[in-house]
Amino acid sequence: MPKARRKPAPGKKANRYQAILVTIFQGHYKTNENAFDFERGEIEIVAKRLKIKLPKNLGDVLYSQRYRTELPHAIRSVTPSGHEWVILPAGRGRYRFQLIRGSSRVLPRVDASIIKVPDATPEIIAANAKTDEQALLARVRYNRLIDIFLGITAYSLQNHLRTSVQDMGQIEIDEIYVGVNREGQQFIVPVQGKGGSDQLSIIQTIQDVACCREKFAGLTCRPVSAQFMDDGVIAMFELKEHEQIPRIAEEKHYKLVPADKIDAKDLESYRTS
Which of 25, 58, 181, 216 is most deeply packed, by most CB within 10 A? Predict the structure, then answer.
């Protein structure tokens, strides 16, 4: 039986943003086509035609679709069963509707066991941190959750790395780590984090992996995704490519707690698992 996972949440701006994307999709799509490109400028042209007010950041139209809402019915109705359309970067000012097998979302299981980890977050960080992406990445960093999850020694290299990737254009990686294992193998670990109502997507992982292959070709890429869940639980995923599409290879759920909240029963459970 497949593991239960959280369902995508509806977005507040879905109607007007989706109207734009549906119009662009229908203007390019041909029956049985698996991919087609469109220009960023088409978003403004279509919005003007539909009399839709755009945000200052045009990328929010795509961000909402990638990380907050499901595809509109007009697009899902021409999608083969077991597949999904995603919007990928395709160069400077260009995007690509691509048909993939499976889902584009990386959704936490709701029935996963929770592993307690002694909370090493500095008190001043904990006192002021929120529940957004940056707060999540800070907790992952201070508690060395990348090390714990992947079983390597890892160091944060940079956060919000903005760079250009061939055939994609500009991308941004939430945080990137370098690491090494006991055999001396070195790794590059791009991390995407999501908090609040935003959801993880393989789209960012596709971008992250392409960047690491181009910029860090000598290191083994191990992409990680992290998601804030209820009650402060952090779901972490390692993704690996299957038929050129990132898929969940490993998933663990961690809860940061005071050391005295981890009792002998917990420790015995972890020792024998």
Answer: 25
With vertex at residue 125, the alpha carbon angle to CA 116 and CA 117, rounded to the nearest 5 degrees, is 10
Task: Name the domain boundary from 81, 103, 125.
Answer: 103
| Residue 155: predicted pLDDT | 98
Beta strand 245-257 pairing with 114-118: parallel
CB 133 within 8 A of CB 140: no
What is the pTM assigned to this prediction? Answer: 0.89
CB 67 within 8 Å of CB 199: yes
d(CA 179, CA 174): 17
